[in-house]
Each structure stands twice: as structure tokens, then as C-alpha cells.
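re: ur question from earlier - yeah i can do the single chain one, its not a big deal. heres the input i used so u can compare w yours
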Amino acid sequence: MSKSNYITRSGWQALDQELKFLWKDERPKVTQAVSDAAALGDRSENAEYIYGKRRLREIDRRIRFLSKRLEVLQIVDYHPKQEGKVFFGAWVELENEEGELKQYRIVGCDEFSPAKNWISIDAPVARALIGKMEGDEIEVATPNGKAFLYVNRIWYEKENLY
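and the output i got, formated as C-alpha cells:
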């Protein structure tokens, strides 16, 4: 399955801030630390030098990834026409067959977070929810078989546009 290129405005801003932090703060500090460690002499047994070079490669790899990813991501902002239906960025309260309630927010694959109950637009539950309204029932294939979920509530957080 391919990754979607959708992201919320706050998600894009978080990735952009991470890129700026790595490029303007973290990378110069690590570069200086590597330079200082190299000046101490024997680099083959210099742990600070070896660790610093490894950390620099990690930073550069993440900077390249973020730079390329931010170019292709498409910010999806809330629109009043979305009210009452599940679309990207929606919070959805679902009820399972046992009456248990769970809330999820549908976000881009770059910002999903199980700890926050943010699920990727590419997840089967999110795919099944798109376009549904309060009161609708969805069927989702799970490892334990089919699950039926009832859409109790849908709402959107209006993010700052700038």
C-alpha cells in the first residue's frame, strides 16, 4: 500500500520545525563536537568522534527525508462543507458491538500517533470511515474477523490557518 501525501497544517508545521531545528541547531552543534573530537588526535579509538560521525549521518539522513517529504505533502485544511461527515482531519467517536467507545482522529501517515488516538488515513478503519455520517455503521476486517463499528459523533478542530 502506498503512503498518502495528506497532512494537517499542524502536522506539516511540526515536520517543518523539526527540519529547521536539525539544520540550524542540532547539526552545527554535532559538527562542532566532531571537529573538536577530531582535533584530539587518534580517531580510530576516539568514542566522541565515532559517535559524533554516526549522529551526523543520522541527522543528514533525517534532513534529506524531511526535505523531500515536505515538498510532496499536501496540507488539508478544515472546510465547513465537511461538517457532519467523516473526512481527513476529523475526530470520530466509534462504538463497537460490546458498547465500548473509542475516539480517533484521521491524520496523515506522517503524523499518526497511537498514544494520541490519531490513525493514518491509510488505515483500514479510516478508509472505511471516509464519507460516513453520524449514525452510520461500518464493517472493518480485523485479525480476529469482521468488526462492526457504529459512528456516534464526528467533529473537527479548526486549526490556525497561519
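The first strand starts at residue 6 and ends at 7. not sure if urs matches, ping me
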